[in-house]
Amino acid sequence: MRTVLERKVRLDGSVEEWACELLALEPGAQAAVRYVLQEERRLAGTGLVLPAGTVTIGHFWVDRPYTAYHWLSGGRTLGVYCSVAELLQVELEGIVYLDLAVDVLFLPGGGVSVLDEHELPSDIDRVTLKTIEEAVAALRADPPGLLADVEAATRVALASQSHNRPQ
Questions:
Q1: Stretch 36-60: mean pLDDT
Q2: Which CATH number belongs to the domain containing residue 142 in this structure?
Q3: What pTM did the predictor assign?
């Protein structure tokens, strides 16, 4: 198993990092990682509870204005959490993105919630605000299509992982 560091840089400059299992990588273009929650996590502002053992498949694309986290429990989709973001680096050395604070949660039953708009700084520049608004509009345009796209990307990433395991 190869690990890679996922690094989230917030608008205020603070940084959060996670060591993840690298599932797929196309340097400079896209990546998929796997992370397993060690303890239960309640998603603030929603009724969603992710049980301990939830598998997170993170997807990062240079050509999309968001990252996507596909949450699975027992092979079943619990939700897809998209963070509006600018991807800064997708390499073996690590995945680095600028988190633009706003997130969109998609639930399998069709629920869509825009989260964390209150985290936007009051002095945010107009260009960044426009980027965020356009990304949220694109995410909300076709929720079933987005879920299907992320689920398909997860299947491909997990299949490549199983093909890369030593026999």
A1: 95
A2: 2.40.380.10
A3: 0.93
